[in-house]
Amino acid sequence: MIYREYGQTGKKVSLLGFGGMRFKNIDDHDECIRLMVAAAQGGINYFDTAPGYFETKSETVFGKGFAEMRKMGLPYYCASKTFESTESGIRREIEGQLKRLNIDAIDFYHIWCITTLAGWENRKKDGVMQTFRKLKEEKLINHICISSHLIKDEIKELLMEGVFEGVLFGYSAYNFNTRQEAFDAIKEKNLGAVVMNPLGGGVIPQHPELFKFIRREGEGLVAAALRVLWDHPEITNTLVGFDTLEHLNEALDAMEGYKPRTSAELEKTKANASASFEGICTGCAYCAACPEGIQIPYYMDAYNQKLLDKNSQDPIGNRLKWLWCIPKEGAGKCTECGLCEKACTQHIDIIKRLKEIALM
After folding, report:
1. Is 253 exposed, middle or buried (0-12, 13-18, 19+ CB in 10 A)?
2. What single DSSP character describes residue 141?
3. Rounded to an integer, what distance in angstroms lies between the CA atom of residue 164 and that of residue 275?
4. Any idea what DSSP says for residue 235?
5. 299, 205 in Cβ contact below 8 A?
6. pTM
7. Closest CA to 338 of 330, 328, 347
8. What is the pLDDT of residues 243-280, one digit of tens each?
9. Distance from CA of residue 235 to its chain's centroid?
10. Which long-range contacts (CB under 8 A, 24 or more apart) does 262-271 make?
11. Distance of CA 158 to the CA centre of its chain
């Protein structure tokens, strides 16, 4: 296992992390605990969960898993999150979390799911940062972190505030173009950087031809998708939501055979992404300046799911609801002014796609 420094915290975390939202059978606690212990025995020491995963059941399983790890002398760090922003709400939340997790303090505690800068400003007005600082002073949390779905300059603006020790965001070969600004801020502020959805929410394994550009000779696609992220020195940890021992071992095997690309090789691989994604929005966000305030990059990202995710009954709706927290109907505000399409370097028919989304 490879371990990297988590920003300026002095903690070294495993480059491969355990995400707690994919357990195959959350009610089979023994099976879930065995999976966590096997991950720890394989060298994974970063375990991430949240109160919303399986309606708090994931945190309960983590608590039992951590207790078993302590018995076995296996080290671990716990990461969790909160949607709450007021002091009363956060304290009520963390009291239940600490009880379920069976620990005295959460190592990496995240202000969860920032999707707009306006939403971030509202949370600050509620006093979220003052409360997080108090929790740290009281040793109920060890490090103040942020979980964000912002892209491009917006995420850089968020991270440059200088209040966070680490950030969690989505990144994969599927959205290479959306995160350079985040990496710039991560380097400047020396933040810990944890990425979720390294397999593109399952999109990458479903489309081996589309993503063949990330594979090197002899590599399986899952291994390639993880390794191309490990090639980024700014990334501290890649979270994978394991559901079976087979999938865990597949990721651990990818770590064992890992040989890093050079920076030049990595840049070449990232450049190949744009050439491979004909008709798929790569998230450059040049279309973001909509006079009607439509969050076009989010709607185009959701439309990608229709093109790529063949297994979901409502890929666009699910993406908008659970990732971006915006309604389909918002796409209907389009006046067809055409500014977005003029700005689109991929010449995507944005207006047509917005209409389609609004009518779903």
Report:
1. middle
2. E
3. 35
4. -
5. no
6. 0.83
7. 347
8. 999 999 999 999 988 999 999 999 998 888 766 666 77
9. 12
10. 265/231, 266/228, 266/231, 266/232, 269/213, 269/214, 269/228, 270/176
11. 16
The residues, any chain, with a CB within 8 Å of residue 51's CB and separated by 6 or more, are: 59, 80, 81, 82, 93, 96, 97
Strand partners, 77: 46
pLDDT digits (tens, 9 = 90+) for 19-68: 998 898 999 999 999 999 999 999 999 999 999 888 899 999 999 999 99
Q: Are 108 and 145 a contacting pair, CB within 8 Å?
A: yes
Model pLDDT for residues 122-134, shown as the tens digit of each residue: 999 999 999 999 9
Cα separation, 80 vs 13, whole angstroms:
15
**Exposure on the CB side of residue 203, measured as CA atoms within 13 A:** 23
Whole-angstrom Cα Rg for the chain: 20
Residue 168 token pair: 């969690």
CA separation (Å) from 99 to 18, 22, 34, 72, 168? 20, 22, 21, 21, 24
Query: With contact defined as beta carbons under 8 Å apart, do 35 and 242 qualify?
Result: yes
The amino acid that residue 207 corresponds to is H
Closest CA to 13 of 76, 81, 104, 80: 76
